[in-house]
What we know:
By secondary structure, the protein is of the alpha/beta class. The protein has helices spanning 10-16, 19-35, 39-45, 95-112, 132-145, 165-179, 203-219, 235-247, 269-279, 293-297, 336-344, 352-355, 358-372, 378-403, 407-426; strands at 50-59, 66-75, 83-90, 117-124, 155-159, 227-231, 250-256, 259-262, 289-291, 303-306, 325-327, 348-350. It has 3 domains: 1-46, no CATH class; 48-183, 3-Layer(aba) Sandwich (Rossmann fold), CATH 3.40.50; 203-355, 3-Layer(aba) Sandwich (Rossmann fold), CATH 3.40.50. Helices cover 46% and strands 16% of the residues. The protein has a 7-stranded mixed sheet, sandwiched between helices. Helix 13 packs across helix 14.
Amino acid sequence: MGTNNRKLTAEQDIEWDTPMYKLAVTQLDNTAELxxxxxxxxxxxxxxxxxxxxxxxxxxxxxxxxxxVFGYRVQHVLTMGPTKGGLRYDINVDLGEVTALAIxxxxxxxxxxxxxxxxxxxxxVDPVPLSRAEKQRITRRxxxxxxxxxxxxxxxxxxxxxxDEQVMAWIMDxxxxxxxxxxxxxxxxxxxxxxxxxxxxxxxxxxxxxxAEAACRQVGTAFDATRVIVQGYGNVGATAARxxxxxxxxxxxxxxxxxxxxxxxxxxxxxxxxxxxxxxTLDGFPxxxxxxxxxxxxxxxxxxxxAAIQNQIHERNAPRLDCKMVVEGANGPTSxxxxxxxxxxxxxxxxxxxxxxxxxxxxxxxxxQGLAQLLWTADEVSKRLGxxxxxxxxxxxxxSQVQGVSLRxxxxxxxxxxxxxxxxxxxVFP
Length: 430
């Protein structure tokens, strides 16, 4: 049964028909066809098992303005155990985007071997102008609206775009107040004082560099001799840049929401961190060339790390990338068309569902520590993360070599295959 016979229904067109959803489902369709996947399981994996859409009133600080805000929580697969996935606050978030992210999270957890299905949440709001009090009200009301579908043994949230440790603390407190006792495991990525894990904040960026180092070993390149560009200087990108610099690589380009900076002689993330703490953004950073985010992607380097948002590498700029390797720190940063172009050009792409799995991996560690009342040191967390990410990379690389496919296709084959086998083992009820 080919992909041409698998068209979205009219209902799906209305509910999920967005570019990100189309990307996620097309990746699934192409890989499932290559795998000769059972068509019944294939069809089941194209849509989420549960999709929750809520709307709720949000009162601004002036107490005279009340807006209606939309929120989402999508649980793609419940077969593997509780669902797991981040929560993002973004003005452009929609059901299709959240569904795509939940699908990718399913593959990500399966690739690493975590006992989770994929989930994702979102609130359609611009978090930047919100006061602390406004963000807290939105968070607590959103939590109360979806409280019946989350829990440490149901669905566990974590920080994502526009959210952080504090948001997780508010979610945990709201949930705990409603059930009548403290439940740290309802979220991960929370403050250490509330049961958070050492190393969680740096986990995604650390995983990106772990994969970059592993890829360099496979192609016979010394990581500490590479030039690195990081587009997106948020938590993931900044951590990746710091670790790359400290490991000996030369960070030659960085970018945040204000634009990019480039210096072929290298940038010191400690100095850019200091600049941002004083000025808010990278804009105006001295001793560097100012470029746009788009221009930064095309500057010469060995390793390009897109760690901002989706669809940054597309068919228009993919022919102009001047790098040897792309390691995806963001979710969905490369379009299908760009993926094909990069493959034709011989540019190695370490896909997002592998490269940025460090966050959910350490979230799993945090969840386990909470359930078992354990306390791991930062070194223990880092060591365990390296072991799991390294093993997953080796499995993806071997599959790629044996099957003669790209790393993205190999990762999808592993993730989809494991979820499919789990579904087949459990069967259909009733």
